[in-house]
Amino acid sequence: MQVKETYRTNIIVGYTIIFYVLMVYKFFNGMFLFQMLPSFFYTREDLFTWIFMLTNFHKWLLNNQLGCILMDTLFYTTPILFYLLYNQSIKNKTSNYNLFNITRLAAFIMLFINVAYIQCYTLYPTNSIEAHIAWMLFPIVFIAKDIQVFKLLTDGIRYFLLFFLMSAGIWKITQGGIFNTHQMSNVLLVQHKEILVITPQHWYAQFIQFLITTPKLSYALYFAGTIFELSCIVGFFTKKYDSFILIGWLFFLCFDHFIMRIPYYEISALLLPFIISVENSNSKTE
Amino acid sequence: MMYFQQLYRTNKLWFLFVLIFVLCQLFINYKQGVTITPLYHYGMYSKKAESIDSIELYTVKINGKILQPFQFSAQEWDKLMLPVNEYCNVEKHNNDLFSKDIKRILNKLYLTADSSNFVFAKQPDVFLNWYKKYASNIISASINNFEIDKITSHLTEENGVIKFTTVTTKSFNRACK
Asked: H-type helices in chain A, by residue range?
């Protein structure tokens, strides 16, 4: 099937919308770098991070309000600037071919800024770096010039999410979590220790207590999650079940927030290849 | 395979890029050790969680009242508690990682690893001063007095109810020594 430019436009618009919805969410939860103003860092087991840390950039940002504002500004403005440049290049494609190359350069700069920002942001005790992977992968896709390559790289992101989920299921087998019938009860106990000790009478604490003391039920949730993760292997062979994977993933995000109190929405952009297809984009153009 | 064939036919450079990415991702997963951005492990609570009979946690008391999780969003609560939970252990963690892996691996790459880039000395008093301002911004109130305690609680289960009995309480300064 021929891939039209509308497909790229839809993916870029989708990326920009998700990015800015999350930006608003993070702002109101005080999750911008300047709102957190970190004072110490936690070195993770990552070779790239170690090389990055040799620059001392992460230390420069400690207790540095102005530096943090600068990084927030760069991180949160590049996607909209990139989108505007891309939009302009689409409008003037025939008259100004160079503009498209500038757009690709902008994607490269966005990649550079995103990597630097995320490296620092996740060195301070906030979020895991894994959740931010979408912001490091999509700019690479945006660098592609040819629409066919763009489509194939976006497919690559789809495969990546499938791998992400499937490998989580395999890890549960190799690390033994799935063979422990008290796994979820024990995880919940550690995850919600403050809630259970400080506010034991709260309805949510009671609910978590119920799950902990009913290991069959909590394990069933863990088991169901693992089965969902493993079943994602089907996505490598067909796109027929993409809507089920999408629904399953959305359920996972909601349950992660409700049961674990882990807002993992940062990963949402990886769902774009499951939401926007070439067929849909083409039919809209026609 | 079809995907790689298509990519190979369309653009050999991107094919090589994706192929290297995939092979490295598989290798990182196989080795189960140090990761390399953007290649990570996605374990998500896969490690066997053992049963415990006691638990350690920090409580933050501001202006005479202990902070309660449901006064804040999940993100805000993490922002309040994660620095407290991690600060005391972070020096040891960073130090251990530096002497065990960082120095060795960076030296292999002919890079000079200076410990000051990866490690910092904990200073509980400095942290507490910083935390006072930090927490004040999150709770949107001025802080007249505050204390952080580390509690060790013993847990027992009776008729489907978990009971926590505080065994020891230490001040943040003492816990951080």
From this structure: 5-28, 33-36, 47-53, 57-60, 65-91, 98-121, 133-143, 147-174, 183-191, 193-198, 203-213, 215-231, 242-260, 272-275, 278-285
B81 near B161, Cβ under 8 Å? no
Neighbouring C-beta atoms of residue A180, cutoff 10 Å: 21
Non-local CB neighbours of B110 within 8 Å, separated by 6+ positions: none
Residue A14: pLDDT band with limits 50, 70, 90: very high
User: Is residue A263 over pLDDT 70?
Assistant: yes
Tell me the C-alpha distance between B10 and A279, whole Å. 20
Question: Which pLDDT score, from 0 to 100, does residue A172 have?
Answer: 95
In this prediction the ipTM stands at 0.91
Least CB-CB distance to A136: which of B38, B74, B79? B38
For helices A65-91 and A5-28, angle between their N-to-C axes, nearest 10 degrees: 160
Nearest to B36 among A47, A126, A182 (CB): A47
The label of the residue with tokens 């690390």 reads A175
> pTM value?
0.92
The residues spanned by each domain of chain A are 1-145, 146-286
Q: Chain A: give the shortest CA distance to residue B57, in Å.
A: 7
